[in-house]
């Protein structure tokens, strides 16, 4: 009996309805099931109506149910392993630094460049930059002075670099960008921005 109950609980709902409907139809047709169980005329009619409704509902559910696909443990393993196969690089990665951009009264020296994960389909590129102000007056050292070209598409910084460098002084700051993970070429524009402005190439790892 316990095995029958387990089988019914595991069966699709339309199959359970079909079995129940056939059982009620059996009561309606045979009337007397045991010596103590006699449906009688009204009981047979009622059982027949219920049986027809359940069988019809079972057939309807079978006809309207769309195709299903069971998710196996193998499928789940493939889905979990998929992101890992998209990259052969262990992040964060330190990129070649030491580049300089010199202007009339200021110099930007790139001390460090780090590439790391940001979002599922994005990477974070972080620059540590020292600005040397050779003029006598304070000057801004902020996000507005930089643009990153990712495959020739200009991207604004996402960090909060907003400093003031005093005259004849230097200060370090952090500049951060979010770039598409599939970016192939990078270049940094400093002070002079726009389609015709010069840009400093940034080398990316061969595999990402």
Element layout with pairings:
Elements: H1 2-10, H2 13-30, H3 40-64, H4 73-85, E1 93-95, E2 100-102, E3 106-119, E4 122-133, E5 139-142, E6 146-150, E7 153-155, E8 162-165, E9 169-180, E10 186-190, E11 200-202
Nutshell version of this structure?
With 208 residues, the protein is of the alpha+beta class. The chain folds into two domains: 2-64, no CATH class; 93-202, Immunoglobulin-like.
Write out key terms for the chains shown:
about 210 residues, 2 domains, about 30% helix, Immunoglobulin-like, 11 strands, 4-stranded antiparallel beta sheet, alpha+beta, rod-shaped, 5-stranded antiparallel beta sheet
Structural category: alpha+beta
Strand content: 25-35%
Shape: rod-shaped
Q: How many helices in DSSP terms?
A: 4
Biggest β-sheet, characterized? 5 strands, antiparallel
From the structure provided, what is the oligomeric state, counting identical versus distinct chains?
single chain
CATH architecture of the largest domain: Sandwich
Average pLDDT score: 81
CATH topology heading of the largest domain: Immunoglobulin-like
Please give the share of residues in helix.
25-40%
Order of helices and strands: HHHHEEEEEEEEEEE
Integer count of domains: 2
Q: Count the strands?
A: 11
Catalogue the unreliable spans: 68-86
Q: Which CATH class of the largest domain is shown?
A: Mainly Beta
Rg? 36 Å
Textual characterization of the structure:
This protein has 208 residues and is of the alpha+beta class. The protein has two domains: 2-64, no CATH class; 93-202, Immunoglobulin-like (Sandwich). The protein is built from four helices and eleven strands. The strands form three sheets. Strands 1, 2, 3, 4 and 9 form a five-stranded antiparallel sheet that branches. Strand 2 and strand 3 form a beta hairpin. Helix 2 (13-30) packs antiparallel against helix 3 (40-64).
């Amino acid at each position: 009996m316990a095995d029958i109950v387990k089988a019914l609980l595991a069966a699709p709902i339309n199959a359970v309805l079909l079995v129940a409907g056939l059982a009620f139809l059996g009561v309606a047709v045979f009337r007397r099931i045991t010596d103590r169980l006699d449906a009688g005329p009204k009981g047979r009619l009622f059982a027949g109506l219920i049986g027809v409704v359940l069988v019809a509902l079972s057939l309807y559910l079978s006809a309207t149910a769309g195709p299903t696909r069971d998710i196996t443990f193998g499928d789940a393993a493939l889905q979990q392993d998929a992101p890992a196969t998209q990259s052969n690089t262990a992040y964060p990665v330190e990129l070649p630094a030491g580049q300089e951009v010199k202007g009339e009264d200021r110099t930007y020296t790139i001390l460090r460049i780090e590439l790391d994960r940001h979002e599922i389909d994005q990477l974070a590129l972080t620059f540590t930059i020292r600005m040397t102000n050779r003029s006598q007056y304070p000057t801004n050292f902020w996000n507005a002075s930089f643009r990153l070209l990712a495959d020739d598409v200009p991207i604004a910084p996402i960090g909060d670099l907003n400093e003031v460098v005093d005259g004849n002084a230097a200060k370090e700051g952090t500049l951060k960008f979010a770039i598409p993970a599939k970016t192939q070429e990078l270049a940094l524009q400093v002070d002079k921005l726009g389609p015709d402005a010069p840009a400093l190439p940034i080398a990316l790892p061969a595999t990402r």
